[in-house]
Design brief:
There is one protein chain. This protein is 40% helix and 12% strand. The protein has helices spanning 8-20, 38-44; strands spanning 27-29, 35-37. It has a two-stranded antiparallel sheet.
């Protein structure tokens, strides 16, 4: 299954949605074609959750 997202936030929300639905191996491709698993993608955003 493939989805296109316009922003990093949309991609992050989609990875969460897919994981809630039971998908285990969620992969995100950045605009340059670099492949990251969902957790690595979230870490790459450098979001301060506090």
């Amino acid at each position: 299954m493939t989805f296109a997202c316009g922003t990093d936030e949309q991609a992050m929300e989609k990875t969460w949605e897919l994981q809630r639905r039971g998908f285990r191996d969620v992969v995100v491709l950045d605009p340059k074609g670099k492949e990251l698993n969902a957790r690595a993608f979230e870490r790459s955003l450098d979001i301060d959750w506090d």
